[in-house]
Amino acid sequence: MSGCNFEINEERLKEYNNNGFIIVKGLFDEEEVRKLKKCFEDTNEVVNNKIIVDDSLGREVNLTVWNHPGNDVTGIAARSEKVVNAAEKLLGGQEVYHYHGKLIQKNAKSGGTFLWHQDYGYWYKNGCLFPEMLTYFVALDKCDATNGCLKVLKSSHKCGRIEHSMVAGQTAADIDRVEEIKKKLEVVYVELEPGDALIFDCNLLHCSGPNDSDRRRWAYLMCYNTRHNNPVKVHHHPCYTPLIKVPNAAIKECENYSDFSGKGFMDPKENATVKTK
Fold first, then answer.
1. Sign of the C-alpha dihedral computed for residues 251, 257, 262 and 268 taken in this order
2. Which SUPFAM superfamilies match (predicted)?
C-alpha cells in the first residue's frame, strides 16, 4: 500500500493492539521527504529553538519541539488525512488533536543515547488521565543499529504505566522493572528507510542507542492525543485544539518552507518533559 493511500485495516489494527506498534513503509514518498527536510534544513527556526540533551556519556542530542502543526510543509503532513485518520482509527475511532511535534537530531559520531521510557510516563504528569495517545516516528534519514535507531519492547504497552524518574538528566522508566520485562518480551530494533514510520502506543517501552556512524539520524515525530483525553491542567503542551485535516495531496502542493507562525516553539529553557527518543 502506497503512503498516499495508507489507511488502517483490521489486520493492522490487530497488529497495533497486540504489539503496541506498527511500521509503515513509505508513509511519505521521496518527494514528500525532500520537502520535509527542506523545512528543517533551510531555515533558522530549528537552530534557534533547539534543546540540547546531554546523555551524561559525553554525547548529546538536539531536539526542536513545537505545539501546533502550523501551515508549513511539516504542519500539512501532520494534518494530512493519511496521518490523522490512521491515528483516529488506532485510538478507537476518537477525534484526535496535535499534542506536539519534534525534530530529533542525532548527528554523526556524536548523537547520544536515550534510556528506556514510555511517553505516557511523563505525559501522565501533564494531566492526561488516559493512555489514549500515540506517536509517529518518521525517518528523515536511514535509521539502523549503527546510527542509533529506536529499540522497542514488543507488547510492553500491556504492562501499563511504569513509574519514571530522572536518570542522568532524562526521564526514564524504573530500571529494575524494565530489566525484568526484557526477560519476557522481545527487543526489536526499528530499522527504517527515509519516509518509513513507526506508529506506537504511548505506553510502549522504547529507547535508542548512540550514533557511532558517520551518518546523521534525523527523525520527525508527530504526537496525538484524543479530544476525550483533554488534559485536566494547563501545561507546556496544548489542551484540546481542533485539528483541521487536509487532503494528502496538499503535502506536495505546499510550498511554505519558512513561515512557522502559530507553531509555538518550546523555549529551550522550559524543556521539562521533552527529553525523549
1. positive
2. Clavaminate synthase-like
